[in-house]
Amino acid sequence: MIEIYLLEQLTAVKQFGTLLAASEHLHISQPALSRSMKKLEAELDTVLFDRSVNHMTLNSAGQLACTCAEQVLRSEEMLVETVQNYDRSLHTVTIGSCTPGPLMEYPALLQQCFSSMTIAAEQKEEKELINDLNSHHCQLIILPHAIEKKGYVCRQCGSEHLYASVIPAHPMAAYQKQGITFHDMNGETFLMNSNVGIWENIVRNAMPDSKLILQDGIEELSEIVNASSIPSFCTDLTLRVRGDSYRSSRISVPFNDPEAAQTYYAVCLTSDENRLKPWFRLMTVHSSAAVK
């Protein structure tokens, strides 16, 4: 049976071009690396290098061996990651979302259902979230659309509506009840959290003439917003969780455009459905209460 370290050393030779460079990268001596390559050739019963005085280069069989070795190493990494993620899932429930809003509420609801477990939350792009779900790194992900594929369970779990946050003297403040459109605000400068997920693309596409001043950290952003007259954004979800006090000097005016309303769906693997049923039931009650 070929030992993994031999494959790692072989791919290093390919990557760095010479035994000397590869041995320096691997922090072993060149003679030790040369012996390893001879051992690998013996294991495969195949010559992998063309040898001359003080020089070794991979031949065609060696190049093929490198390609196969890279595949084996990737499979080994996947095996380790999958097993570790599964073991982690026995003690931790991880929820991932494409926007920060759901992560303000949903982890606390998970904690109610899994009081003896650690609840972790991560915000990532959709492709990463689905990969994390399939590898068991996440047990639950929140997406802005439904998934109808075999192996997944998908349930509508809530919504979020975008608002413009303006000072009382702003012309659009008078439309707090009837709402405004993206067209009404297009061209204005906005303060925005740099980590709002899909909302940033929605705003950029809907208001192409507006300038977005991105700020890291919601607390830092709130301080700047409260000290500034520049419009910013908030949502009904952030207002509900954080209250009006964190933007006490502002008026929140809803956008009426269809893109300003996001419906969220909770997705898990079919194998986790029974485990997460208590959360789905609690989420249904919570969503109904939030609407009221």
Q: Can you characterise this structure?
A:
The chain has 292 residues and is an alpha/beta fold. The chain contains 11 helices and 11 strands. It has helices spanning 4-16, 19-26, 30-44, 60-89, 102-113, 126-134, 182-185, 198-206, 218-226, 236-242, 273-291, and strands spanning 49-52, 55-58, 92-97, 118-123, 140-143, 152-166, 189-193, 211-215, 232-235, 251-254, 261-269. Strands 3, 4, 5, 6, 9, 10 and 11 form a 7-stranded mixed β-sheet that branches. A hairpin with a 2-residue loop joins β1 (49-52) and β2. It is elongated and about 85 Å long. The model has no long low-confidence stretch (mean pLDDT 90).
Give the tags.
single chain; 292 residues; alpha/beta; seven-stranded mixed sheet; two-stranded antiparallel sheet; 11 strands; elongated
Order of helices and strands: HHHEEHEHEHEEHEHEHEHEEH
Mean pLDDT: 90
Q: What is the number of E strands? A: 11
Rg, rounded, reads: 27 Å
Largest sheet: 7 strands, mixed
* Tally of contiguous helical segments: 11
Distance between the termini: 64 Å
Beta-strand fraction estimate? 15-25%
Structural class: alpha/beta
Low-confidence stretches: none
Anisotropy-based shape: elongated
Q: What percentage of residues falls in helices of 4 or more residues? A: 40-55%
